[in-house]
Specification:
Shape: globular
Radius of gyration: 21 Å
Helix content: under 10%
Structural class: mainly beta
Low-confidence stretches: 1-27
Mean pLDDT: 93
Strand content: 35-45%
Number of strands: 38
Length: 525
């Protein structure tokens, strides 16, 4: 594993945050409060099941109704998966049931990811399952039809637990599916990790499936732009089942090979559960958060394109429960960056919960909400904010569920009801940007949105994947503190960049390529 400190190269990587870890006390940012919304769903939703559903429990957040409010699709394990239609207002968060997507109850679901597979401008769903994965084509107004055969995507029979996608030069994406233990191997489960799969667009209008090996029991995948600037597929693997011969992986998309130490990618071996990537230092390079049993590992991007483990003093390891008296190691699942108090500094949510009854790990294991301070360090505020649930959390989503500009929180729990909290502030100003393209990659996956206010720079990339078994397809949310205006620039997936343009805060915009390098910015609901 990477050193926690070493020569402290994180100091070089974080100049814009004026870190003062060893020069006195850190300044505390104001913590928001979250109010539980126990009646938000029409009935409790629980992620159920035995061994095959110890993992999974993903949550997808996306707007399939076109009203600007995100719907939620929650995996159910041995219980039916559920799609919840958002009926919220700025005064209350509320959801209604939707008919089963695809027309029949979906059993065995471990997670789901929204994306526009066929380039028609309507979001589809890729549903991960124990058994055949499902492709659900969006028909508009939150209606879906099974489309494995129509789109030519093989669902397989594996135990699928991770997903990501990216667009190259083709109009359609390459899909990566992460598989866990090979259930058909009589020598299993230990040391019997299944191969992952790539689904590539073919010349007939469908997708061809091929192995991506070796597989080391993937629990999260994320196609993104690492610090090197070369797009890659990061895979976080569970050493509990690969035992000794595996590690986390980075597959270089251009050269189609796994990178190693000779490429500047050091060996990292974790009980890998989730991935979250975002620039948190203001240098434009994405840091990477990896959840696990025990230490939660944050990797800081360095100017030479490599990564260094964050120092322990940064406050991101979250290795033991922060409430109660249980000193055993904590278990992290979904990780997600988001500015929960809109102060212009990304914060971090980590869903926590014992796998089941593993005696070597904490049983009462509260979620983490790590608030970034002005000096770049992080403070644990989950208890103060009201989200330190000790249910066995799995997937989650930080999303503005009621359209008030504040990120709310939804968490899927194993053998306990899904929980929703409303963010009640206090918070600063905000803006949300949704890059769009006219065809093919309509959601502009791979685009990088840069936003600046004064001397501060924030950069986010549009991605599909990461988290734990679920992700969002929503406008990119930026907190801005007291700023009333911001400048925005989009670097499109083909590498062309728009001019900087000034926009007013407190609104959500679609951003499309305009004439002469400008952006066509249109306010959204």
């Amino acid at each position: 594993m990477l050193s926690r400190g070493g020569d402290r190269p994180w100091r070089v990587a974080m100049p814009l945050l004026a870190l003062a870890l060893f020069a006195g006390g850190a300044v505390r940012a104001e913590a928001p409060r979250f109010a539980p919304v126990p009646g938000a769903l029409p009935a409790p939703h629980v992620y159920e099941g035995g061994w095959e559903h110890f993992v999974g429990g993903g949550l997808a957040a996306f707007d399939c109704s076109g009203d600007g409010l995100p719907e939620l699709f929650a995996a159910g394990g041995t219980a039916p998966a559920a799609l919840f239609l958002n009926r919220s207002s700025e005064d209350a968060i509320r959801f209604d049931d939707a008919p089963p997507p695809g027309g029949a109850p979906i059993l065995g679901a471990t997670g789901a990811y929204p994306l526009d597979l066929d380039g028609d401008g309507v979001l589809d769903l890729f549903v991960l399952r124990v058994g055949e994965n499902l492709v659900l084509r969006g028909e508009g107004d939150c209606r879906f039809t099974r489309a494995n055969e129509a789109l030519g995507i093989e669902g397989g029979t594996a135990w699928s637990t991770a997903f990501s996608a990216w667009w190259g030069t083709a109009e359609r994406p390459t899909l990566a599916v992460g598989n866990y233990v090979d259930r058909d191997d009589p020598e299993g489960p230990f040391g019997t990790c299944d191969d992952n799969r790539l689904h590539r667009p073919d010349e007939r209008g469908g997708w061809r499936s091929e192995p991506l090996s070796p597989g080391y029991c993937a629990l999260s995948m994320l196609a993104y732009t690492p610090a090197s600037g070369r797009p890659g597929l990061r895979i976080s693997n569970d050493r509990h089942y690969y035992v000794r011969d595996g590690a986390d992986q980075l597959w270089d998309i251009a050269s189609e090979r796994f990178l190693g130490a000779e490429d500047g990618f050091p060996r990292v071996s974790l009980w890998g559960m989730g991935i979250a990537a975002r620039d948190i230092t203001g240098d434009g390079r994405a840091e990477v958060m990896l959840t696990s049993m025990g230490d939660q590992l944050l990797q800081i991007a360095r100017p030479d394109g490599s990564y260094a483990a964050a120092p322990f003093e940064l406050g991101t390891y979250a290795h033991r429960p922060h409430t109660g008296g249980d000193g055993r190691p904590s278990t992290g699942w979904h990780a997600e960056w988001g500015d929960v108090n809109n102060d212009g500094r990304p914060d971090l949510f980590i869903a926590k919960g014992n796998v089941d009854q593993m005696p070597e790990n904490a049983i009462e294991d509260p979620n983490n909400l790590l608030l970034q301070r002005p000096d770049g360090t992080f403070a644990e505020i989950a208890g103060e904010a009201g989200v330190a649930s000790t249910a066995r959390a799995r997937g989650a989503a930080l999303a503005d569920l009621d359209g008030d500009g504040l990120l709310d929180l939804a968490v899927v729990n194993r053998r306990a009801p899904l929980e929703i909290w409303r963010n009640t502030g206090p918070a600063g100003n905000w803006i949300a940007l949704a890059p769009r393209l006219p065809s093919g990659n309509t959601r502009a996956v791979g685009a990088r949105v840069a936003l600046r206010t004064g001397g501060a720079l924030q950069v986010q990339e549009v991605t599909v994947g990461g988290g734990h078994a679920g992700g969002s397809a929503l406008p990119l949310h930026f907190g801005l503190g007291p700023a009333e205006r911001a400048e925005v620039r989009v670097t499109w997936p083909d590498g062309t960049a728009s001019h900087w343009q000034t926009v007013r805060t407190g609104a959500t915009y679609s951003a499309r390529p305009g004439p002469d390098g400008r952006l066509a910015l249109i306010p959204l609901p």
